[in-house]
Amino acid sequence: MIITLTESGAPLVDQIRDQILGLITTGLLSAGQRLPSVRQLASDLGVAPGTVAKAYRTLESEDFLVTRIGSGTRVSTKASAIPRDVLSAATQLVKASKREAVDVDEAIRVLRAVWPEY
């Protein structure tokens, strides 16, 4: 699993949660796919196991993950990838925003501003 943490960004728990959620919504992690154990991912990322456990619990409470004793943590069957057209449009928004030096918060404000129009 590809997760990159930054010390200057959001809290580590949020970074882990957001990146796993991104992997699910983009289809890189699919329903039923097993995630690394808490201890394994914590070791891979160089963080405390409690940090990963908290991110997993949050995603579980949001129905993106399911944890079962003996079978580990898996992507929930309720979780689904975002439709390709939406993902493509989001990718184009990111590219245009970076090209124009618009940060993510401003891009989100723009998206929220135009959302009611459609």
From TrEMBL:
Keyword Transcription regulation recorded: yes
Pfam families documented for this protein: GntR
Family matches, as InterPro entries: Tscrpt_reg_HTH_GntR, WH-like_DNA-bd_sf, WH_DNA-bd_sf
Domain of life the protein comes from: Bacteria
PROSITE patterns listed in its UniProt record: HTH_GNTR (PS50949)
GO MF annotations, alphabetized: DNA binding; DNA-binding transcription factor activity
Keyword rRNA processing: no
Domain HTH gntR-type: residue ranges: 10-78
Keywords: DNA-binding, Transcription, Transcription regulation
Identification of the protein by name: GntR family transcriptional regulator
Organism of origin: Arthrobacter glacialis
